[in-house]
Task: structure prediction
Amino acid sequence: MKSRILIIGACGQIGTELTMALRARFGADKVVASDIREGDAQFMREGHFELLDATDFEAVEDIIFRYKVDTVYLMAAMLSAIAERFPSKAWDLNMNSLFHILNIAKDGKVKKVFWPSSIAVFGGTTPSQNTPQTTVMEPSTVYGISKQTGERWCEYYYKKFGVDVRSIRYPGLISYTTEPGGGTTDYAVDIYHRALKHGQYRCFLKEGTVLPMMYMEDAIKATIGIMDAKAEDIKIRSSYNLAGVSYAPEDVAESIKKHIPDFKISYDIDFRQSIADTWPESIDDSEARKDWGWSHSFDLESITKIMLDNLRDRYS
Ligand code: SER
Result:
């Protein structure tokens, strides 16, 4: 039976936990992890893995054929901060990987596609409080432009060719299993590592920079939730707003101090501040809640406790 799931970018921050969740749910044989680099030993041991460059159309098609894949999660992407340094590489990876999968789906070779979008699709002219699903979108970063364009293509392939593609605009994601790489919201993960290791953190975003964030378990629940939903319930085929919590660096610092009273935060802002300044502070995700029953579970206090509890062993 043709029914395997392929995760492209399976060793990244989301991909790692998504792969583990899908293996647990469907059984390891049903899940094919792929990435341009290998994951850790346990990850490699526990299921199928293929080295894959997401921009290599033939290699992607070959894996889909060999493993009889019918569902693809395309998680490979270059994030906001790093994409500013490598614009054409970021455009190539973020766009062409999507085109390949949409075209393969258009040809009927896979049935369902998940592709992540981001709060980076919004820009400085977007209302920043409770940002609506449909609003002004003038992204000013390479990453944001690629995600916004990708959303347009997803909707186009759905409307024109009936491709069942589903998408979420992730906020900044917090996890302890795999670290993020090259994003503007990375501080919100680094801060826990530094708190445990050095008792202090120098933050590259300034005090008062409120951004939408989410604990990874919520993000995985949303990802699997939107893929589980009936096709007719997915009314938005560009990408859904998704919200968890919103906070600024000093809020994380305060929550850490409840566990590590001597923890100190200082500020040394860099170019990522100008990216954060164009992103919303909070997101209205009522469409996702209404259409496919999304709800989040983790607030900042619970995220901080989980992060510190799970990372403590690594640094003690
Ligand atoms: N967390 C991402 C970034 O900072 C946003 O999608 O780039």
